[in-house]
Task: structure prediction
Amino acid sequence: MSKYSSKWLHVSEPSPHVLLVQLARPPVNAFNTEYWKAYGKLFNDLTEDGYDVRALVLASDLPKIFTAGLDLKNAGTLAHYDQLQDPARTSLTLHTLIKTFQQNITSPERAPFPVIAAVHGLAIGLAIDMIASCDIRYATSSASFAIKEVDVGLAADIGTLALLPKITGNLSLVRELAYTGRMFSAEEALNLGLVSKVVEGDKDEVLHAALDLAKVIATKSPVAVSGTKRLITHARDHSVMENLVYTQSWNAHALLTEDMKECVKAIKEKREPKFAKLRVASKL
Result:
């Protein structure tokens, strides 16, 4: 998987159609501009290349931390915008920067395959933006989280405040965590709905649990799983009736898939179904 690995992103394929992406920028996986652009590029490349990935696990390669979030040394480069003379031009420049940052970090949500976050250790600031954009989130019992942006003088702007109110019904707790920047435990993250499973143990245990889940998902029809992901995301952002209408249009073509025939045939023959890759490369 050297084609997709980069300086701080280690990509492997531990089982067929399952990719493991490990964050690997010592000492704390802090994200500078180069790092978050590489992160977004990875998901875009996998999609554009039509690589046959049916589930992806996102984890940290560091022993005690998922990520400490934004590299504050890199964030300091924003200070040069203060030197620009025209506030309007400064604002437009920053708008473009924030938009690009958002698009890169939220790229897992737009991927045609499920992304599972396996969190251990500290997950701070940008970490919440990242995992909130994933489909499923597991954490170790010792993991700790924080929406930390308020402590560096800004409102979280890369995805947390847009996604967390959709993920959880406890808006009171979302506001408390965002206003205070306090640490919260894996148990509280589970109650909040930020994670769906707390795994006893540490890095290896949560990674194994996430990979086991990914293996199960990878056995399913990629047409069905990708369509399900798209329809769930649409339902989150639209009314019930709007989603039903959208589903009519989506399944009007998706029901023509050969995967349905293969599923029925595999059941009759008492074997595991075999599916074609979801898409071909889109690059010209």
Summary: The mean pLDDT is 94. The domain at 9-218 is CATH 3.90.226.10 (2-enoyl-CoA Hydratase; Chain A, domain 1). The first strand starts at residue 9 and ends at 15.
